[in-house]
Amino acid sequence: MSSAKRASELKRFFENAGSLIGASWQDVLMDNAQRVSGPLATRMLSQIGITQETTMPFRLFDNACGAGAVAQEVHRLVKPEVLQKSSILCGDFSDPSVELSRKRAEEEGWVNTNAEKIDAQKTGLPSGEFSHVTTNIGFHVVPDSKAALDEAIRILKPGGTLGFTTWAQMPGWAEDLQSAFASFPFEAPFSFGVQTTEWGNWGDVDWIRKELEERGLEDVKVELFAFTSHVDNVEHYIATAGMMIDWVVSSNWSEEVRKEHGRDEYQRLVKDFLEHKYDGKGWDQKWVAVVASGRVLARR
């Protein structure tokens, strides 16, 4: 399947997260925000200078916000008196994600934080509006990632800072799934491209550095960041990775194979494989990401 087709399938999954995952979809996104995207957000925020030591108010736009992991970590890190003078806008194309971020902002008391449906490729936001723009695990799956990058830079104030993360390697859940598919008693094709957008090479630190520098950003910093997250047990793996497993099946298996081997069967086979592989216990998954940042010229 082409990258464009994979991107279209993935976009459909995220747009319909609530109906595809079921009643527990918010729990799935929240679990990911705590175990995976949260640690990544903390690392990215540190690189762009939003930490426990921050004293200057900021105006932050978090692009492709998902479950609000960036806003979550900002509120965990930054002093209340600084938050009172700052603002956060969470934007995402997915209605379920926007709904969840709004819910969290209200229930968790996030200060001066709003969530809106926003297309990363054409935000509609004013130029020079934000002191910081972040995209946590997003550019490599945006259909027109070049437009999204240019938009992120356009809406930064002079002297403003861009920060983002992308996957550098196949994520841990996909490695487990690849091994599981290989064990199936029938041919189960597996192809997983970390990047679905056709433009660029979002897992390559040198390519990212070059693109940021060519756009005139200063203090460009692009590094790899490796970490692990814990999977409690096989049921936890299926609950949290189930949507992505369905996406891999939809993207790789023919209609004939999908009809012959339905969701109940392939989920059971994945469970059986992982139960045997990890002796019925929990395990750690490995993640390797690119963390990138750069600053817009003070005068443009």
Which features characterize this protein?
alpha/beta, Rossmann fold, seven-stranded mixed β-sheet, 7 strands
Describe what this molecule looks like in 3D.
This is S-adenosyl-L-methionine-dependent methyltransferase. InterPro entries: Methyltransf_25, SAM-dependent_MTases_sf. There is one protein chain. The protein has one domain (3-169, 191-229, 288-295): Vaccinia Virus protein VP39 (Rossmann fold, 3-Layer(aba) Sandwich), CATH 3.40.50. The longest helix is centred in the N-terminal third of the chain and has 23 residues, at 25-47. It is an alpha/beta fold and 300 residues long. The model has no long low-confidence stretch (mean pLDDT 93). Helix 10 (234-252) packs across helix 12. It has helices at 3-15, 17-21, 25-47, 69-77, 80-83, 95-107, 145-154, 172-182, 205-214, 234-252, 255-260, 263-277, and strands at 59-63, 87-92, 113-117, 130-136, 156-167, 218-231, 283-295. It has a 7-stranded mixed sheet.
